[in-house]
Structures are given as structure tokens and as C-alpha cells.
Amino acid sequence: MNKRQTGTERESQAAEYLTKHGMRIVERNFRNRQGEIDIIGYHENYLVFVEVKYRSGDKKGSALAAVTPQKQRQICKVADYYRYQHRLGDNTCIRYDVVAIQDKEIIWIRNAFPHIYVRG
After folding, report:
1. What strands lie across the sheet with 35-43, from one edge to the other?
2. What pLDDT digit, counting tens, does each position of 20-58 carry?
3. From CA 29, how far away is CA 43, in angstroms rounded?
4. How far apart are CA 28 and CA 65, in angstroms?
5. Taking a C-beta distance cutoff of 8 angstroms, is the pair 98, 109 a contact?
6. Which pairs from 105-111 meet CB under 8 Å and 24+ separation?
7. Which residue, 23, 86, 88, 102, has most beta carbons within 10 Å?
């Protein structure tokens, strides 16, 4: 299985897990020229932008550590565009979550990082 297939499989696994835990998923793999958000959904009155990371072992570090500050900024830019495109105002409650899949363990970190305001 190549990286893309593995990524798609793990994102599906994460989506199933989130759905079972009460998230209503509205979009997967939302892309624009700035980047991509793996899963977008609603959970506990929040619009949630979810990054999914997978590691089969610990040679390359933890899945959680892979969501770097640079990746967080990119996710926030894409989320801002999504909110603009869907006419969701600044009063929409948003949250950034990470689903880390390390080997076979799924870890859901709610409110994993704050919104990062980026100019331009």
C-alpha cells in the first residue's frame, strides 16, 4: 500500500471514530491553494477542523509531534477560507482538533491548538 492509500485509509478510520463519538462530519479533504484540511465537522456546537496524522511506529517521532506550528498556520489559513466561502462569520465557534493514530491507537486531542491569525 502506498502513502496516499494509507493516508486515505487512516482518515476514514479517524472519520468513523469521530462519528461514533458524536461528530457530524460535513466535509473531508477540503482543499484550496493554501493547503488541505482532512476532516470538517460539527461537535458540541463547534465547527471543528481536524488534522489526521498517522505513524506506524516511532522511528519518525510521534503522530502528535507532526502537527508543527507551520502546519497549524496552514490549517488556520485554509479554515479561514472555508469560513469565508461558506459565509460563516467571526461569531462561529471553531475548534482545531488532531486525531493521532500511532500504530493502532487512536488519540483524539480536542482544541489541540488555538487559531493563528495570518496576514495575507
Report:
1. 24-32, 35-43, 46-55, 94-102, 105-109
2. 999 999 999 999 999 999 999 999 999 999 999 987 766
3. 18
4. 22
5. yes
6. 106/13, 106/14, 106/17, 107/63, 107/64, 108/17, 108/18, 108/21, 109/64
7. 23
| Nearest residue to 41 via CA among 21, 59, 61 | 21
Type of residue found at 50: V
Instruction: Note the CATH number of domain 3-109.
Output: 3.40.1350.10
The set of cell numbers assigned to 37 is 484540511
pTM of this structure = 0.90
